[in-house]
Amino acid sequence: MSGRFAPRAPLTTVPTRPDLLLTLSPLRRGPHDPTFRTTPDGSVWRASRTPQGPGTLRVAARGGEVEAEAWGPGADWLLARLPALLGADDDPTAFVPRHKLLLAAHRRRGGLRLTRTGLVLESLIPSILEQKVTADEAYGSWRRLVRQFGEPAPGPAPDGMHVMPDARTWAMIPSWEWHRANVDGKRSATIVRAARVAPRLEEAAHMAPPEARRRLELVPGIGPWTSAETIQRSNGAPDEVTTGDLHLPGIIGWALAGDRSADDAAMLELLAPYAGQRHRAARLILLSGRVPPRRAPRLAPNDIRAL
C-alpha cells in the first residue's frame, strides 16, 4: 500500500513537545545523509525500511503540536511508532544534574528527548561503517551505498532521499562495490554477517538494553562501541554509554574533572553518579560544547580506493 496519509496532530501521547531536530539528530549520518533531511519550513524527513516495507515520514512542530505525514508501505508502521521516535518513552525528569555544567546544559536543552526508532539494522550498519575511521569517511560510504543499492523514498520526499537497502541486498553487495565505497574488508564482512541474521538482530529492539547489546555482540566484528551506538538509537537507552571511543573519555574527563587524559575507566567513574542516565549525561556534555583544546592533528582519512 502506498499513498498520502493526512497529518496526525496533536499527538497527545507525546508528554511535552520535543525539540524535533535535537531529538532526531542522532539518526542523521552527516549533512548529506540520503535517509534524513530538514527543509526550510522546519520539517524533518526520514526514509526508513520498516518491517512493513519502505516508508517516508515527515514531522513538524506547528503551534505547540506535532503533526506528521507518512507515505509508502511502511507508513502506518512509522505513524504508529511516532511517539516513541519523539521520546514518549523517555523520562528526562529521571535525570538529576550533579555538576554545574550539566545543570546548565539540561536547562538549556529542555527539549531534548532520547529517540527510540524500534529499528536495529538502520542504526547498526552505519555504526559499523564508523568503526576506526573518520566520520567523514563513514558518512561518504553510507551515502554512496544507500544511493546505489537502496531505493527512492516513497511519496513527495525531498529530491535525493533514499531508503536504505534491505538485509538481503546488503548481504549480496559485491566486494568491489564495498571497495569503491571506501569500506575495508573487515567492516564489510561484519555488515554481511549482520545482514544474514537480520531478523534475530531486529528482535533486540524489544529487549532490555543490556540483553539487546549482548544479542548484537554475538556477531563477530560487533563490539561494545558498535552495540552501544546502535541500542542508544533503536531502544532509546538512557544508560548505555559508549565505551571504546577515541574522543569521548577525554571530552567527559575534561568537562567534569578538567582531565583530558581520562580513559574509559575514568569516564565511567565520573559518570557513576548518573547511573541509569549515563547516556543522557554524555549527550548533554557533548551538546554543551565544552571540549578540551586540540593538541594533536585529527585522525587522517584513509582512502582504500587508491590501493
TrEMBL record:
InterPro entries: Alkylbase_DNA_Glycosylase/TA (IPR051912), DNA_glycosylase (IPR011257). Keywords: DNA damage, DNA repair. Gene3D superfamilies: Hypothetical protein, domain 2 (1.10.340.30). This is 3-methyladenine DNA glycosylase.
